[in-house]
Amino acid sequence: xxxxxxxxxxxxxxxxxxxxxxxxxxxxxxxxxxxxxxxxxxxxxxxxxxxxxxxxxxxxxxxxxxxxxxxxxxxxxxxxxxxxxxxxxxxxxx
Length: 94
What we know:
The two termini are 21 Å apart.
């Protein structure tokens, strides 16, 4: 199986603009608004569901341990909350 690169935003915008006969600027604005809504809701409630696509949940990313080369000291960075997408199962694939 050949590995393919994921679609870019430009490719997605072009696809939807051709499919629904909309201007690319309108489609781009819709995608940006969905992104902003998903991030805002995830920060506010801890999750965001895009029906049929997936559920975006906030997940704690592990902290890091960084060693400074010059001083020989270790610096610890605490964990950070970030979005994580849980994909919805595809009923057609079953």
